[in-house]
Known about the structure:
There is one protein chain. The chain is 54% helix and 8% strand. The chain has a five-stranded parallel beta sheet, with helices on one face. The radius of gyration is 24 Å and the shape is elongated. The protein has helices at residues 2-6, 24-36, 50-57, 82-91, 114-119, 121-125, 145-149, 161-171, 177-182, 188-193, 196-214, 219-226, 231-234, 238-259, 272-280, 284-302, 307-317, 319-331; strands at residues 13-17, 63-66, 102-106, 131-137, 152-155. It has 18 helices and five strands. Helix 14 packs antiparallel against helix 16. It folds into three domains: 2-155, Rossmann fold, CATH 3.40.50; 159-194, no CATH class; 195-331, Zinc Finger, Delta Prime, domain 3 (Up-down Bundle), CATH 1.20.272. The chain is of the alpha/beta class and 332 residues long. Mean pLDDT is 84; it is low at 70-76 and 325-332.
Amino acid sequence: MVEILRRGQLPQASLFTGPEGVGKKTLALSLAAMANCKGDTEDELCGTCSSCVKESAGHHPDIWLFQPHKNVIHIGKDSRDPNTMRELNREVQFRPFEGRLRFFIIDQAETMTEEAANCILKTLEEPPETSRIILITSFPHRLLPTIRSRCQAFPFHPLGREEVLRYLEDHLTEDHPEMRASLAEGSIAVALRLDLEETLGQRDRMLELLTSWCGQESFEALYKQCEQLPLRSELKTREGVRRYLNLLQRIGEDLYFLQVDTPQRVVNQDRLDDLQKLSEGIELNWVRDFLYHVDRARWDIDHYVNPLMCFETLWLMSSRETNNVGNRHRQV
C-alpha cells in the first residue's frame, strides 16, 4: 500500500482504517509532506526545504489536519463542528499555495456528527484534482455508509510484537519492554501509555476469574466476584470492559498456544505455571469457543451494548462449555 501511495497514486478521497497507534496519521502526514517536498530526493523527505520545515512545525498552508476535541491546525475549530466541514468545502476548491497538492486530513473521523459528515459528502464525491482528502478512523463501522462509499479504503493492521519491541527498546529505558510489547495489541501508542502495573493487576483478576469459572463455580459466585471493587466500578464503563475483554483474549490465546504445544508463544510468561494448570483441564474446542464469545463481546461493546451486560453475557454464553470443563476438573 505504501508503495502505491508513494508513486503518487493516492486517490482523491481515502479512508485509512485500523487499530489505534499503528501509524495511520503518521503516514497521512508523511504522504502530504512528501507530495510537497521541494528537495531532490524521490522516496524520502529532504527535511530541510521550506515545505518540510513548515510541515514539521504544523504551519504548511497546503496541509490541514482536523482533530476532535482540540484546536485544529490552521482553523481553530472542533472538527465535529459542521461549520468547520463547510470551511473545508470552501478551502478544498483553492489551488495549492506553495506545494503540488493540498491535503485535508480528518483524524478520528468517526467522531464527526451526522450533520458535519453530510457537509462533506459532495466534496468527497468530486474533489478537485489538486486536493486530497484522507479520513482516518479505528472504527469505520461508525462512519455513515455514504462516507465510506465515497472513499477508497486502505486497511492498516496491528504491528508485530517484534516491531513494537524494537521501537520500545529504542525509545524507552524502563524495565520489561517485552511485557509491554506483548500487551500492546500491536499498537505503539497503546504500548507507550500502558500502565504496566495496573494492567498486570487487571490481567491477574481476569485469570483468577477464568480459573474460578472453569473450576465449576456457579454464575452467582462469579457475579459476586464481579461485584467486588475495583472490578465493579471498572465494569460499568465501556473502556473498562473493553480492556478486560482484550486481556481475556490474550489469556485465551495463551491457552490456545499451550493446547497446540507452542508455549514459547505465550504472552503472559510470568503466569505460565498457572496457565499450564488451567490448560490441563480444558480442551482445544473449548478454547476456540471461548475466544469466539470474547470476540462477539468485543463486537457488542463497539455497538453500544450495555457494558456490564456485555461482560456478563460473555460468561452466560460460555456456560455450556464450562459445565463440561468443570466436570473434567473434578475428575482430575
